[in-house]
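Comment thread on ticket #2218

A.B. wrote:
> Attaching the input chain for the structure job we discussed in standup.
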Amino acid sequence: MNPPPNASSVPFRLWTPEERRASLDDALKHWRQGEDVWVYGYGSLIWRPDFEYQERRLATLRGHHRALCLWSRVNRGTPECPGLVFGLDRGGSCRGVVYRLAGKAVPDFFPALWDREMSTGAYLPRWINCATDAGPVRALVFIMNRDNPAYIRALPEAELLAIVRRAAGRYGRCTEYVMQTAHALRAAGIHDARLDRIARRLEAEPDPLPDN
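C.D. wrote:
> Ran it. Output below, let me know if you need it in another format.
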């Protein structure tokens, strides 16, 4: 099974450093120098945060759910054979983690976070209340921008699996990305029934890439 016919023809453009900086400045316009901040993770940030943090908590975000809803043409795919990565799509709720970063680390860390998460402007950075066992925290959350051309609505599971199995990018195979996220959620005690089902099928049927 091949990806949908329009998968490789969707417009693709990396944001310029100036666009990323403008987005970052807008997200931090109400931040006070030295103030600690919380960042919400629901995908690779759970198993590869790439920053030092003061505190980590399990957290529930309401109003959005974790989904493989974003075409990846660099990190886990190519323009010719896109992969899929996680976004927070509209509706439901999502169990993830929140990290508390020391305020003094924000000026150094946030540009790197923007390079990682906002390379194509596919996400909308938002400050949203997340529920934790120790009380609510207001965290930076990267939610899916449904107006971005790389957004894709829910696919039939067989089609989604075929796309994941065949794609690979600069950070490795798309299959590995999905599996690492599933394993990290399990290790954190987070249950995601749909992702668990996808991960079990990937484990049971590890198809090779087309050129193998």
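A.B. wrote:
> Thanks. Noting for the ticket: The chain has one domain: 17-204.
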